[in-house]
Amino acid sequence: MTVLGAMVRPTTKDLAKAAGVSRATVDRVLNERPGVTQDTVDRVHKAIEALGFERNIQAANLAKSQSYRFIFALPRSGDQFLQQIIKRIEEAGTLFASDHIRCDVHQIDENDPHSIASYLSSLDKAQVAGVAIMAPETPQVRDAIRRLQERGVAALPFISNQTTMDANWVGIDNRAAGATAGLLMGQFIGQKSGAIMVIAESMQSRDSLERRLGFDQEINDGFPQLRALPSLETYANEDRARTIITASLRANPDISGIYIMASEARSPLSILKDLQLAPSIVKIAHERTPFTEHALKGRALNGVIAQDPGHLVRSAIRRLKGIVDRRQTFGSQEQIRIEILLRTNI
After folding, report:
1. Which of 54, 208, 216, 280 has the most CB atoms less than 10 A away?
2. How far is CA 288 from CA 262, 285, 346, in A?
3. Is the pTM of this model over 0.85?
4. pLDDT at position 331 over 80
């Protein structure tokens, strides 16, 4: 079918004709309403394939006043990077308003998997269309996500991935991000030998594990004169962070570099500043925040590995809507790029 040489998309009228049914029956099949035999459903789906029919989901949703409520389940403890995420979620409320999408934030205790599982278990399809979850991977959280999906609520990991959901999550390739940090670290240090301190909030989170794997591989393969020390876990506790960082510096006087794997770098960097380290010690961190920008400009940081908070939030919303509408999103549009920030390009 062409009009002035341009292809015309098949309509429900064309679909009904091809399947040998009424348009009302086609509508029932498309909206998964009862009262249609399996044989008729199969005929309509065969006609859909034959014609290449693509439903206008937005128009259909507007016709039946379809709305979406998405929840971002974010850690309770957090600093400037988390604030950036929350700000972008608030902005998304305006950006996606025409699609009848509403976004809320619920903060969870990331160190209590049972409470996270309990919260996810309380969510019902009648009130919530989908959830983006930023939480460490644990059996309790994994099972709660699976049960959430079984109840018809869309779910996807957000920034921190879950093993069973590699095909549908939002975030950077953390192994590549860690390797990028390792390459920057080695190149900044040069031929000098020494130890590298690695600071994380928790090694229970998959993003930290993958960053560490990528970092170690790059350091071991490309910079044999350097040795990466065991990860220091701060658990977002500033007193603990000060104690373990001070002890590690005392035990390793040959430290040449410090890699802050956590997404919140303000607290470790503030502690390192108080300890008056030698300016020659190279420091690499993650995520662009007002603090890391200031640290880069002031040469307290050598480099930052970042991901765009706005892109993260928009991609999560599009992916959740795609799951609810049973439509594929464009992978090229949803790939989150790894950004390298130096004092010269911020």
Report:
1. 208
2. 12, 9, 9
3. no
4. no
